[in-house]
């Protein structure tokens, strides 16, 4: 029996790549603490939800949990919007690095994380375009396609003449099968994980931008229960957690690409000049979204400009991350 | 109703019992709720039902004619809040909640009546707790501008509506607990 | 005396539980106590939804903190009442109420009776057909049994059918409503188990149709041995039969439109409810019954039933959180796994548990309660979640008709007060036998369930 048993909850099932990384992190902490820290886990949303998890952790429903400020409908508008400010970014590692810099520079980010200790930030795979039977080789090919897309891509797709629709991800498979939609904007891992290879035959490797966001957090109360040495241990495990997350996410992408090859899904490379055009268009609408944060009393434009300056400057290095409540 | 032909030999008209009366076989109270509060609940709930139907149907029609109603899901969600909150109040006012009667119907009448009173009071307390939990969340998020993704419908008013209805439901249960205390019940 | 503690007055007890090393109160014990407390509260007549909510909240408060419990209550309640996918249930109810107001359900039965009424037990066969037909527009077993019985029961009694036999056939036939798509229970299962609702609907077609066939065969066998159960009515000439069909052409079109549109992909399963309401309104208008009063009554009836369902769902979800924190899920699945029982034995154990719970719980609540516990076990044993969803609904339906507390029986008794519960329960017994045989068939041959969704998936 561990001296400190922490509860951990996630809306994802235990086999999901995120969860595999979380399990690796828990094992790591159990070992590094010499068995003083132990975990009880609650998967598949049995204890926390995906859009209210920040609130649920704040009030102590669990000690540690997966948070998705990008799905929160209130109280985290800057965290949510800033993940759309990363147009032109090259890798998941860079996404996390830029987020850390923004976090260090803008105290407004920390304010949205009040009551939480962020234990890891996470980036994401770049969504491409998966289509049933109309291959997309240039931006012009998107014209007239009915595509399911996440909300930050909707303006861009409209500007390109596509017909974006917003439907629950759970309905996408049958919508593709029946031709209700022509395709979906999604990363390559979904070719395998959501069985899309059965209903779609072309994957265009264009890249909608993705940013990082704080993704795992501990409640303030749970943090204060730990003695200083264990607080240090947990705080220092951030790098480990972000590394395993990165590894798992990339592995899921590779699994999707391999699956595509085995199931005759055509992988279509996207010309660099076209990608550049897409990035510029994406950033134009991202700036609009940054300005629109004024509606909820947030000055988003400086955050957008800072993110773009960091991305333009190349390899990114910043002071230590700053999220959440200080020890 | 203007029917082409009467059904062969119906022993009683089909209106004699409506499905929902049959669905709730063991409650003996009237299935009609009256008074201004019931009127408001029926109007709000009916509006929610019709709004959800209309929005989703227009979204389907729009998809087939190329006129896309982005965010229709969010409108349906808002309509569903209206209909669900009103429906719960109405179900409470007409005493339409599903419950187990196998034990209570075998008890002596005074005992059963006392038990029913306690059950109503317990239910009232439960809804007060729902209102409390919901109010706690609302106070956290009041300045957080909670809103839907595409249409930016402000959610705080819908949360507030739910709190008000949870309180009204609690009030109905408490009234029921007191009413069954009076003689003749 | 002031130093005397309550424990001193009790007989001498061992200071620790008898099992050395065991902690006095484990989370699993709290979970088990919670379930016992729930049963007691429900038996005392507290509404099912409220009982689930209260015990769930209390459990979370004890095991985590009162603050955590209240927050979960706030989160879950608003999530349920604003969920798009759950908004489908009231809309399907509304569609059924409008069809009822349009006289569609009665006409449907009437035509079926003309075609088979002259056979022994023909009206009972027609009732099963009517239940299957109504089941294709309604998502619920209770709505189906109430609607069809209100028309078919008086007809059968008028034709001198044995009342227990007639009531038994209707009670059993009503359960077709929750398996034949659209199915409220399968929609709920699809959401909590994260399974495609379209696949679940496809998977339910063969089991639903074969269930109807099982009931029909039961009726034929019973009437062959005892013709007095269901005497034949006068034969209706073919000309009149065909002529009667015109009264139900519009109903067939409505069913074809909703089910066909779902299959082709004109609309999603969630949108089908709204489209169905509009189609039912058109049907009502076409039949000349379109009036504000009629629609108002359909809306009011829908709200009364929907309110009951919403409270049960909120309660079940809060209770499920508590069950999850208590670790009973792990304890149960650990027990099954450690027994190294064969998958069949494990499924039989689950069937038994579901039949017990199903006799006093509402279908949706039962689904929400048991899915998180049983689905992981079933998957571990190698069963497909789609098959499991069908199994769960099929087993749960039996709970609607078996003694001591099948809700369908109470519905029928509400319609025919002169029939005793005992008479109806006795009438149900042969159909229960058919139910168990059918269930065994589904367990023995999962392909019956999985063949069609396999085709749909291409
Ligand atoms: Na049905
Ligand atoms: Na039951």
Automatic annotation (TrEMBL), chain B:
<keyword id="KW-1133">Transmembrane helix</keyword>
<keyword id="KW-0472">Membrane</keyword>
<dbReference type="GO" id="GO:0022857">
    <property type="term" value="F:transmembrane transporter activity"/>
</dbReference>
<comment type="similarity">
    <text>Belongs to the TRAP transporter small permease family.</text>
</comment>
<keyword id="KW-0997">Cell inner membrane</keyword>
<comment type="function">
    <text>Part of the tripartite ATP-independent periplasmic (TRAP) transport system.</text>
</comment>
<feature type="transmembrane region" description="Helical">
    <location>
        <begin position="157"/>
        <end position="174"/>
    </location>
</feature>
<feature type="transmembrane region" description="Helical">
    <location>
        <begin position="75"/>
        <end position="94"/>
    </location>
</feature>
<feature type="transmembrane region" description="Helical">
    <location>
        <begin position="115"/>
        <end position="137"/>
    </location>
</feature>
<dbReference type="GO" id="GO:0005886">
    <property type="term" value="C:plasma membrane"/>
</dbReference>
<feature type="domain" description="Tripartite ATP-independent periplasmic transporters DctQ component">
    <location>
        <begin position="59"/>
        <end position="176"/>
    </location>
</feature>
<keyword id="KW-1003">Cell membrane</keyword>
<keyword id="KW-0812">Transmembrane</keyword>
<dbReference type="Pfam" id="PF04290">
    <property type="entry name" value="DctQ"/>
</dbReference>
<dbReference type="InterPro" id="IPR055348">
    <property type="entry name" value="DctQ"/>
</dbReference>
<comment type="subunit">
    <text>The complex comprises the extracytoplasmic solute receptor protein and the two transmembrane proteins.</text>
</comment>
<protein>
    <recommendedName>
        <fullName>TRAP transporter small permease protein</fullName>
    </recommendedName>
</protein>
<keyword id="KW-0813">Transport</keyword>
TrEMBL record, chain C:
<protein>
    <recommendedName>
        <fullName>TRAP transporter large permease protein</fullName>
    </recommendedName>
</protein>
<keyword id="KW-1003">Cell membrane</keyword>
<feature type="transmembrane region" description="Helical">
    <location>
        <begin position="244"/>
        <end position="267"/>
    </location>
</feature>
<keyword id="KW-0472">Membrane</keyword>
<comment type="subunit">
    <text>The complex comprises the extracytoplasmic solute receptor protein and the two transmembrane proteins.</text>
</comment>
<comment type="similarity">
    <text>Belongs to the TRAP transporter large permease family.</text>
</comment>
<feature type="transmembrane region" description="Helical">
    <location>
        <begin position="30"/>
        <end position="63"/>
    </location>
</feature>
<dbReference type="GO" id="GO:0005886">
    <property type="term" value="C:plasma membrane"/>
</dbReference>
<feature type="transmembrane region" description="Helical">
    <location>
        <begin position="340"/>
        <end position="361"/>
    </location>
</feature>
<feature type="transmembrane region" description="Helical">
    <location>
        <begin position="428"/>
        <end position="452"/>
    </location>
</feature>
<feature type="transmembrane region" description="Helical">
    <location>
        <begin position="307"/>
        <end position="328"/>
    </location>
</feature>
<keyword id="KW-0812">Transmembrane</keyword>
<dbReference type="GO" id="GO:0022857">
    <property type="term" value="F:transmembrane transporter activity"/>
</dbReference>
<feature type="transmembrane region" description="Helical">
    <location>
        <begin position="398"/>
        <end position="416"/>
    </location>
</feature>
<keyword id="KW-1133">Transmembrane helix</keyword>
<feature type="transmembrane region" description="Helical">
    <location>
        <begin position="273"/>
        <end position="295"/>
    </location>
</feature>
<feature type="transmembrane region" description="Helical">
    <location>
        <begin position="124"/>
        <end position="153"/>
    </location>
</feature>
<comment type="function">
    <text>Part of the tripartite ATP-independent periplasmic (TRAP) transport system.</text>
</comment>
<keyword id="KW-0997">Cell inner membrane</keyword>
<feature type="domain" description="TRAP C4-dicarboxylate transport system permease DctM subunit">
    <location>
        <begin position="36"/>
        <end position="447"/>
    </location>
</feature>
<dbReference type="InterPro" id="IPR004681">
    <property type="entry name" value="TRAP_DctM"/>
</dbReference>
<feature type="transmembrane region" description="Helical">
    <location>
        <begin position="165"/>
        <end position="192"/>
    </location>
</feature>
């Amino acid at each position: 029996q561990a001296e400190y048993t922490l509860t951990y909850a996630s809306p994802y099932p235990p086999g999901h790549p995120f969860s595999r990384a979380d399990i690796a992190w828990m094992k790591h902490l159990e070992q590094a603490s010499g068995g003083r820290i132990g975990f009880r886990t609650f998967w598949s949303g049995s204890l926390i939800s995906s859009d209210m998890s920040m609130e649920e952790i704040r009030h102590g429903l669990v000690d540690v949990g997966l948070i998705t400020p990008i799905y929160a409908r209130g109280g985290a508008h800057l965290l949510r919007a800033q993940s759309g400010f990363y147009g032109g970014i090259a890798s998941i590692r860079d996404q996390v690095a830029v987020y850390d810099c923004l976090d260090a520079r803008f105290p407004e980010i920390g304010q949205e994380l009040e009551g939480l200790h962020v234990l890891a930030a996470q980036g994401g795979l770049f969504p491409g375009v998966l289509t049933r039977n109309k291959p997309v080789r240039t931006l012009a090919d998107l014209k007239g396609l009915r595509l399911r897309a996440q909300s930050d891509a909707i303006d861009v797709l409209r500007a390109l003449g596509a017909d974006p629709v917003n439907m629950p991800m759970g309905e996408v498979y049958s919508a593709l099968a029946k031709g209700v939609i022509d395709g979906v904007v999604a990363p390559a891992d979904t070719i395998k994980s959501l069985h899309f290879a059965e209903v779609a035959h072309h994957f265009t490797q264009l890249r909608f931008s993705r940013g990082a966001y704080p993704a795992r957090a501990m409640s303030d109360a749970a943090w204060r229960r730990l003695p200083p040495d264990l607080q240090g241990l947990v705080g220092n495990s951030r790098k480990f957690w972000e590394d395993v997350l990165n590894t798992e996410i990339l592995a899921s992408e590779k699994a999707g690409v391999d699956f595509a090859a085995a199931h005759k899904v055509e992988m279509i490379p996207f010309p660099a000049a076209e990608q550049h055009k897409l990035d510029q268009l994406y950033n134009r609408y991202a700036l609009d979204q940054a300005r629109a944060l004024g509606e909820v009393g947030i000055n988003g434009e400086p955050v957008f400009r800072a993110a773009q300056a960091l991305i333009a400057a190349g390899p990114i290095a910043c002071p230590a991350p700053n999220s959440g409540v200080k020890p | 109703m203007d029917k082409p032909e009467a059904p062969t030999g119906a022993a009683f008209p089909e209106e004699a019992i409506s499905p929902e009366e049959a669905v709730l076989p063991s409650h003996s109270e009237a299935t009609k709720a009256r008074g201004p509060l019931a009127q408001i609940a029926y109007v709000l709930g009916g509006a929610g039902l019709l709004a959800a139907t209309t929005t989703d149907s227009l979204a389907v029609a729009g998809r087939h004619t190329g006129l896309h109603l982005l965010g229709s899901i969010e409108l349906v969600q808002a309509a569903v809040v209206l209909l669900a909150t009103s429906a719960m109040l109405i179900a409470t006012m007409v005493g339409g909640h599903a419950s187990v009667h196998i034990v209570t119907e075998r008890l002596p009448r005074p005992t059963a009546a006392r038990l029913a009173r306690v059950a109503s009071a317990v239910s009232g307390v439960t809804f007060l707790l729902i209102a409390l939990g919901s109010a706690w969340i609302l106070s956290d998020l009041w300045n957080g501008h909670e809103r839907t993704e595409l249409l930016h419908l402000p959610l705080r008013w819908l949360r507030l509506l739910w709190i008000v209805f949870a309180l009204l439901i609690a009030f109905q249960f408490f009234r029921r607990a007191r009413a069954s205390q009076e003689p003749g019940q | 005396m002031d130093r005397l503690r309550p424990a001193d007055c009790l007989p001498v007890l061992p200071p620790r539980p008898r099992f050395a090393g065991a902690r006095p109160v484990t989370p699993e014990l709290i979970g088990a106590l919670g379930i016992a407390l729930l049963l007691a509260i429900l038996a005392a007549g507290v509404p099912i939804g409220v009982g689930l909510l209260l015990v769930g909240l209390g459990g979370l408060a004890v095991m985590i903190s009162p603050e955590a419990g209240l927050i979960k209550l706030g989160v879950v309640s608003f999530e349920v009442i604003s969920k798009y996918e759950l908004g489908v249930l009231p809309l399907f109810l509304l569609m059924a109420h409008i069809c009822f107001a349009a006289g569609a359900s009665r006409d449907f039965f009437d035509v079926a009776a003309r075609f088979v009424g002259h056979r022994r037990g023909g009206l009972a066969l027609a009732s099963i057909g009517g239940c299957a037909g109504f089941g294709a527009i309604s998502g619920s077993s209770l709505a189906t049994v109430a609607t069809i019985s209100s028309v078919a029961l008086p007809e059968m009694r008028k034709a001198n059918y044995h009342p227990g036999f007639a009531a038994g056939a209707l009670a059993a036939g009503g359960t077709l409503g929750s398996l034949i798509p659209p199915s409220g229970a399968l929609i709920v299962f699809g959401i909590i188990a994260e399974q495609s609702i379209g696949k679940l609907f496809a998977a339910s077609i063969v089991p639903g149709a074969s269930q109807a066939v099982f009931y029909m065969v039961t009726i034929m066998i019973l009437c062959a041995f005892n013709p007095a159960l269901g005497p034949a009515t006068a034969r209706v000439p073919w000309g009149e039969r065909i002529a009667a069909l015109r009264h139900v052409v519009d109903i067939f079109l409505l069913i074809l439109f909703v089910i066909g549109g779902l299959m082709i992909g004109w609309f999603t399963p969630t949108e089908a409810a709204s489209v169905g309401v509009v189609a039912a309104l058109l049907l009502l208008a076409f039949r000349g019954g379109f009036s504000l009063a009629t629609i108002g009554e359909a809306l009011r009836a829908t709200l009364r039933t929907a309110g009951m369902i919403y409270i049960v769902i909120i309660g079940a979800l809060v209770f499920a959180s508590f069950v999850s924190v208590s670790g009973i899920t792990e304890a149960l699945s650990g027990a099954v796994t450690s027994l190294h029982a064969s998958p069949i034995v494990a499924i039989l154990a689950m069937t038994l548990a579901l039949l017990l719970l199903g006799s006093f719980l509402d279908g949706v609540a039962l689904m929400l309660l048991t899915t998180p516990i049983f689905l992981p076990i079933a998957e571990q044993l190698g069963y497909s979640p789609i098959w499991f969803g069908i199994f769960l609904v099929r087993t749960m339906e039996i709970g609607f008709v078996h003694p001591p507390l099948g809700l369908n029986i109470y519905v029928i008794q509400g319609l025919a007060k002169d029939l005793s519960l005992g008479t109806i329960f006795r009438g149900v017994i042969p159909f229960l036998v058919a139910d168990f045989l059918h269930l065994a068939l589904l367990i023995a041959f999962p392909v019956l369930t999985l063949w069609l969704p396999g085709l749909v998936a291409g």
